[in-house]
Amino acid sequence: MLLAGATSASGIASATALVDAGARVLAVGSNQDRLDERLPFVHARYECDLGDFAAVKQLALQVHEEHGSIDALIHLVGGWRGGKSITGQSDEDWEFLHHSVLTTLRNTSRAFVDDLVSSPAGRLAIVSAEAVLNPTPSNANYGAIKAAAEHWVNAIARLFAKQAENAAAVSWVVKALSDKSPEEAPSGHTPVQFLAQAAVDLLEQDAGEFNGARIALPKA
Fold it and tell me: From which residue to which does the signal peptide run (predicted)?
């Protein structure tokens, strides 16, 4: 399994849960020192600029040489930028979101989609947002990029439906991945913990039941 954006709080929690469940996790991030410090327990760690398709293709070659094909890609690369109404949706914020959310998804999925199609149980997942179906002027840049990311995932889901009936591509929907502690969360569980559990569930569920699904994760 390739976990992109692995050094974030959600990446670390997901990697921990997946390793505990017996998965072989290959972690990818933008800084090798952070990868080595925060994820010493995963199978392998790779520094890569996922916004650079040439670099991602080289990553895919290295992964294939060292580990063979992957069975799952969990894309947790992202970020958030807001603004004051429509006129406050700046070009700088748009470019940041387009690069960090959409370009990295396009690059990683293009480089590894053939692995997922050929796998007996290919999986692709991203984190999307409630903002996609609840647009606001101040969140227009962010919601539009997340909507585009969901469209991309749904296109891959259609590919899976035609070529790989045991594969599934999904969008997990959250309001926000807050940094609350479990003690501060009303349910005793944080959004990050719910995401980590969803990553484990992704490997265990029947693909036909959720390929192309937009799955709302529990709130804290």
Answer: none
